[in-house]
Design goal:
Elements: E1 7-10, H1 25-28, E2 34-39, E3 42-47, E4 54-60, H2 63-75, H3 79-85, H4 100-110, E5 119-123, E6 141-145, E7 152-157
Antiparallel strand pairs: 1-4, 2-3, 3-4, 5-6, 6-7
Length: about 160
């Protein structure tokens, strides 16, 4: 649980080993080297241990609601999740100077299905806007979603550094 109420779970289709597990209290409260970036009931959990340590997370009002959602993984495996399982992490490097155009190309490159089924978004600041005091989650982030933006298929943090 976190201060705002609810239960946060890992919900990253590209990380099946942790998907469905509950976040620790430190993770949910952005402590102990973790930063939770939240938009509504969706979020990104960043770890200070390295640029690749990012996971999609989701908040539920109750543990029962989270268990019900996690239970749906075993009974149905949508095409987007099946395709995400076949991705090889690191098989295509994140764009060094990520912008929306390069993120779209990256998403289409890591996605094994038809390119019209993947949607690219860009988060964070542009490389030129970064300062030395910005936390890691401010770096440009490429995120790939299914057509309805309901499942995150892949994501990466750009390797650009502040000037």
């Amino acid at each position: 649980m976190n201060a705002a109420g609810g239960v946060w779970i890992f919900d990253d289709a590209t990380q099946p080993q942790s998907r469905g597990k509950e976040l620790s209290t430190d993770m949910a409260h952005s402590r102990g080297g973790f930063t939770l970036v939240q938009v509504g009931d969706l979020g990104l959990l960043l770890s200070g241990s390295g640029p690749g340590e990012v996971a999609a997370v989701r908040r539920f009002a109750t543990r029962d609601a989270a268990k019900s959602y996690v239970g749906s993984f075993a009974t149905s495996k949508p095409a987007v999740a099946a395709a995400a399982d076949s991705l090889k992490p690191g098989s295509l490097p994140c764009p060094a100077q990520a912008d929306l155009h390069s993120c779209k190309a990256w998403c289409q490159g890591v996605w094994s299905g038809p390119v019209e089924e993947v949607r690219a978004t860009l988060g964070g600041k542009s490389c030129s806007e970064l300062t030395a005091n910005d936390p890691p989650h401010e770096r440009p982030t490429c995120m790939c979603y299914d057509q309805d933006y309901t499942s995150q298929l892949a994501m990466c943090l750009s390797s650009c550094k502040p000037p």
